[in-house]
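Sequence in, structure out. Go.
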Amino acid sequence: MVEETISSAFGTLGSFAVGLLVLLVGFVVANYVSSAVADSPLLEGRVSAFAAAAAKVVLYYAVAVIALETMGLNVAILYTLADTVGLALALAFAIAVGIAVGLGAKEYVTDGIEDYSSASATEDD
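Output:
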């Protein structure tokens, strides 16, 4: 009984230590990647800062989930949260693209309708 308790405690302590190590290394890598994105010559100005911050947040979240799972904790709710946020962002992007295309094509469609109306009016005469 005592031997099983001690064995279980050391097993849990080992998982916890490995989880902390994963967390530490992951945060260092996330900071490095964020700095690399911020210094990228492909991105400029505010886009660079936004991309770096977004990369850091996503990597911090992924590292935290991996570390907590390594520690033996249940992270199902974190997976659900990530799915929900991802779906919301995809929906927001789709709506933004739809509005942009609609506003951009408004003048083109108006011209097309006017051309069609004038052509059909001339055919009726």
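Check: The chain has three helices and no strands. The helical segments are 2-38, 45-70, 76-124.
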